[in-house]
Amino acid sequence: MLALFDLVSALKSELGGLFETLVVALMTPPISYDASQLHKALKGVGTDDDVLIEILASRTCSQIKDIVKVYKKECGGKLEKDITGDTSGHFQKLLIMLLQVNEERRRDKRDTDEGVEEDRIEKDAKELIAAGKGKVGTDEDTFINILGNRSHEHLRLVFDAYKKVSGNDIEDSIEGATTGNLENLMLAVVKCAKSVPAYFAESLYRSMRRAGTDDQTLMRIMVSRGETDMLDIRACFKKMYGASLYTTIQSSGDF
């Protein structure tokens, strides 16, 4: 029986283009695949912020820990150092917070009540509202500290309280108060806190609705979510866009 490395090498010699990239990706262990995508995003020509946002906003605490270990072993560097060297400002700060996981942090408890701090829900909501109405601009640090340090369950309750008090969805406020990669990262954290499958359904839709499919995003999501929550993503896609994900992908190319 061929070793995995030999099998991948054999496949590479027989295939080409996007189909080769897809098949090799499917043969790669999920954590190694995530680490390689982050390394490519950081070490390519210019930083691919979209990949950093997608992976760091959506992965669980344990997955992030494993990615950090595999990145060091297989990519020959420290992920936090590479992110720090290629990003800056508030965008960098929130990325690093998402990377520096610990037992009190959010994502391992995202579907339980354990990560909810009842006495902080209304306080967090009011702080977010105040942060978006500052006289000299948005208080990004408040948004970052709350989005980066609360459980998914806690954030969902905060978002409900935020809407009840302000009359607005948190996404609308973020879009009106921030721009660029920081806005995209904050929105990704919010959407993943609400529903990771819905976040990926939207990302898939966006990758295929443009003039020309975003093949790399489409492939990355299908590979990385194929054995985790693809059935949920398919259901969300159908509910959100009234079309089958299967049929939509069929029109995007042979690979």
From TrEMBL:
One of its GO terms (cellular component) is cytoplasm. Keywords: Annexin, Calcium, Calcium/phospholipid-binding, Repeat. SUPFAM superfamilies: Annexin. InterPro entries: Annexin, Annexin_repeat, Annexin_repeat_CS, Annexin_sf. Belongs to the annexin family. One of its GO terms (molecular function) is phosphatidylserine binding. A pair of annexin repeats may form one binding site for calcium and phospholipid. This is Annexin.
